[in-house]
Design brief:
The protein has about 120 residues and is an alpha+beta fold. The protein has 2 domains: about 35 residues; about 70 residues, Alpha-Beta Plaits (2-Layer Sandwich). Helix content is about 40%, strand content about 20%. The protein has a 4-stranded antiparallel beta sheet, covered by helices on one side. The longest helix has 25 residues. It is elongated. The protein starts with a helix and ends with a strand.
Length: about 120
């Protein structure tokens, strides 16, 4: 009799949790804490992210890409940064828009130059 009672209580708790999750989903709420590091969706559910694309002059190799990426990571709060010396582009994903003057200053301090900045 006690086992049946415990099982019934557990089923009621699980049902209440599921109903709450469904209700929150319908209202557009999410259980997401925003820490996408261990999320299988890799942050693709966050639409408020900003993409900044820099056209950089002077990158010639993979080490140049690393210098640019490290400078950006060390000076800005970013989700992701990728550089390509072949295309001359650096793509930065961040939660907040990045300050263009500060970007220019940081990149200049690495010895490279910014030809253009595009924000999406």
């Amino acid at each position: 009799m006690g086992t049946i009672l415990v099982l019934a209580i557990l089923m009621a708790v699980v049902a209440a949790i599921i109903l709450n999750l469904v209700k929150n989903k319908k209202q557009g709420k999410s259980s997401c804490g925003g820490n996408c590091g261990c999320c299988p969706m890799s942050g693709s559910c966050h639409t408020s992210q900003h993409l900044t694309v820099l056209e950089i002059e002077g990158m010639m190799c993979g080490m140049c890409e690393s210098h640019v990426n490290d400078a950006i990571r060390n000076n800005f709060k970013v989700k992701e940064v990728k550089s390509s010396h072949k295309t001359g582009l650096t793509q930065i994903t961040s939660d907040e828009p990045l300050d263009e003057e500060e970007l220019r200053k940081v990149i200049k301090s690495t010895g490279y130059g910014i030809k253009s900045i595009a924000k999406r």
